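We emphasize that the prediction below concerns an isolated chain of 634 residues; any contacts that depend on oligomerization or on bound cofactors are therefore not represented. The input was used exactly as deposited, without trimming of termini.
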Amino acid sequence: MGGRHSVAGLLIGLGVVGTAWVGPAAAADAWRSRVASRLLAVYDAPPASRSASPVARFNARGWVQADVHYDCSAVAESQIETHLSVSTSIKLARYCVIEGWVAPDRLAQIATVTGVNRVSLPSYAIFPSIKATPAASPAATAINANGVTIMHADEFVATTGLNGTGVQVGVQSAGISNIKLIQGRGELPAVQVVNPAHGGTAPSGDEGTALLEEIHAVAPGASLTYCGPATYVEYTSCLSQMISAGATILVDDIIFPQQDLLSSDSSEVQAVEQLLTQNPSVVLFTAAGNYNGSYWEGSYTPVPLSTLGQQPLTCGTQTDNYVAHFGGDPNEVLTLSQAANVPVAFSWADPPNQNSSKFDLIWIDTASNTQGCLSAGSASDNLISQNVSFTGASYKLYIATPDNSAQGKFLKLWIGGDGLTSLSKSTTGSVVTPQAFASGVVSVGAVNGSDGVGNKIESFSSLGPATLTFPTQSQIQAPVLVAPDGIKVDAAGTYFAGSLFPDGNFYGTSAAAPNAAAVAALIRAGYPAFNASQLVNVLTKGAVPLGSVVPDGTFGFGRIDAISALNVAISIAGNPAAPPANSTPTPPPAPPAAPPPSSGGGGGGSMNGWTLALLLLLTLTPKSCLRALLRGSG
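Result of the prediction step, given as a token string:
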């Protein structure tokens, strides 16, 4: 299992460091090289205007939230704890971070603590949420009924007597504010809640409640745990705490685009990989995202603005004479379905935290000709990421530089998504969160389950593979699996009701990921000795193929299926384990009306010879005999 990691925390306050204040005049001091440029901008700003920063967050006392990265040594940890009052941190090899609030004037003292190697702004959680549209099918009558039947989870429970009992599933998502209301209706059992930090509180809302309801509908015997993070440090802390609480199936629908989007060996990716390595039975499922059509990647191929008949562009103090071709065309148009404040992330293939480029991202409103921009000229890392308010319907986009010295650098650009935005020139690769880059993590795309069939990829579901450039150029399979969305979740009386489509269904990869995790819980209930790689192998080999090539960047290995995965598990390890003693399987929810026959690829892929024979036995044999046969004791 590896060494036990520790979880603590940090509050940085005015007066906790007793050394003298160092002002902005000390521009040449070495400590400044250890503070991220966006945080330095807060430090250097006049005190009265610091809270106007578009990327930093402040508490009621005017302290800015910051992450203090140190060298993981005991000496450094001791020195930091001597100077600071701890409230939030994570300590793993290569990822030792203390997070909290710091008086901006004290950043210099923190950066000079022995062992501190970087002080930066936190990476804040973004929770995907699809914009509702009227074009959808009527909702099924029971919670997650279409998902249950499409994935044959009801058949699995009925034929094996296994319903997830003995397995604990941990969920990270946006809020469980009204979970007691749902539990009062008998739609959820007790849920263990762990906090990402001492005194931490979960986000408000009920998307987390919805994910828990989905899992319970598929695997009603599974135990449930929830943690609600606000930052990547808290996310990693939540992973470790849920694992310590006994969860072996983990699922989230959170992205962190403020982290390195080009490295497979960043400290953030390595932190997740280390947790999974230390706990070889744990499988992590993450939503692939709803960003297809709102993403572009490719090499920078600059063209002089003069050859396009255009004047130089400016952003701040920088004048740009070159702009990118987007697949051979310099014209990239961003279209919004409504005015919105959306996340924007732009990254380029300079080494992590070693920006040598002078990229500007510029947008011009096609109606008013007004301009906005983000500049990387003073950035200390290879990423620009912040929320931007767009009030118009369409914008011309430019990736621009003063000269052509950055030619050939690989670029990633993501703006919005979730049904709100689209780019006229888009590409695949729109998986934009570091946990999806970690080895062994299962990213999950969405197929439309509202038709009861689930063979059609959702147009917004992020497509792969994910391209990385450090330490070497590589591509990561994404998504790994797809699962149904467009399912019924009873959200009456909760914050989550506003996220539902007019048909009452829950759409997006946020709905798909918990379905996949719940099927994993069913398989683990029958095969508790499977480690993570064995369990994922069974799920991928048992997936219903929906693409012409397996795996591909649209469906991955295919749509997850409980009965097909069971067949694979039986072929590898024999019959499933018996249900725990004295357990009474919860009957599966009543299925909705039978869907029309499907002509889509692979729709009946799970009905192989073993399944047909099993169904025949079910009709001709007493259930007690059949269960004995499945357990190998009859």
